[in-house]
Write a structure and sequence with these properties.
8-stranded mixed sheet, 13 strands, Aminopeptidase, 8 helices, alpha+beta
């Protein structure tokens, strides 16, 4: 029987990755400065994608780990998987991706990623994959564009020179969680911020699963990998037909 152990993760072209993200990611948006795209293949079809690139604000994040070089960290900025993938595929794909990064990019010591507790989830996949939680905060970066009835990020509004207009829009309620993964375990010793127990997500009322706030998790222990694993299908795409055959990156 096919399982997550049968997944193949390898680089794909940016054009193919961006097309898949627009179909499969809940936001429907790509990150323009992504530099590395890994496709997740199963049974001859691509069923997932992970995109990596420099954080939009490197100066604001580089000091999270003391002594980090300018090219010593990267952001996992987009991740989407189809519903066709077998159980535990997300954590399996992330594990393979981390091994590829560690093998081919020796200068990268750690990576950062954010969970969108306003629209998607609180990061159960990250917790099941060995990430550490370093920040939980009310999100003020997403506001609803009344012209499109779709959310827009503050950074996008800035690039579109819509800052003044953006500030008048209704903000989306929710939280943002910041997660780190250490490709170099020794780099964790230089972490300048505390690691936050996973259970604090529920205690702060920040729990979200598949776009739905889950206040019941306040009564549950989410501070273990087992709990995270039970729910780590949260960023699966509902577009199960989005998979397609695709060429490898050059």
């Amino acid at each position: 029987m096919a399982s997550a152990k049968d997944l193949i993760v390898k680089p794909i072209k940016a054009t193919d990755a961006n097309r898949l993200i627009k179909k499969m990611h809940y936001s429907g948006k790509v990150v323009p400065n992504s530099q590395l795209h890994l496709g997740v293949f199963w049974q001859g079809h691509i069923e997932g994608v992970m995109s990596f690139g420099p954080p939009l604000s490197k100066k604001g994040t580089i000091n999270i780990v003391e002594g980090t070089r300018w090219n010593g960290f990267i952001e996992l900025n987009r991740m989407a998987f189809s519903e066709r993938l077998p159980r535990n595929s997300e954590s399996r794909a992330i594990s393979i991706a981390m091994k590829l990064l560690r093998k081919n990019y020796h200068h990268i010591e750690w990576l950062i990623s954010f969970a969108d507790g306003c629209q998607c989830g609180d990061g159960t996949i990250y917790r099941a994959s060995g990430f550490v939680l370093t920040d939980i905060r009310h999100s003020h970066s997403l506001r609803l564009n009344p012209a499109t009835n779709k959310p827009m990020h503050a950074m996008q509004a800035h690039h579109l020179k819509m800052d003044s207009e953006f500030r008048t829009w209704k903000p989306l309620q929710g939280f943002q969680m910041r997660y780190l993964y250490f490709l170099n375990p020794k780099a964790r010793e230089r972490l300048t911020v505390p690691c936050i127990p996973f259970k604090q997500i529920a205690e702060m009322g920040a729990s979200m699963y598949r776009g739905e706030s889950n206040m019941r998790e306040k009564q549950a222990n989410v501070g273990t990998t087992d709990t995270a694993t039970e729910h780590h299908r949260s960023s699966r795409s509902n577009l199960s037909k989005a998979s397609t055959k695709i060429q490898d990156a050059d």
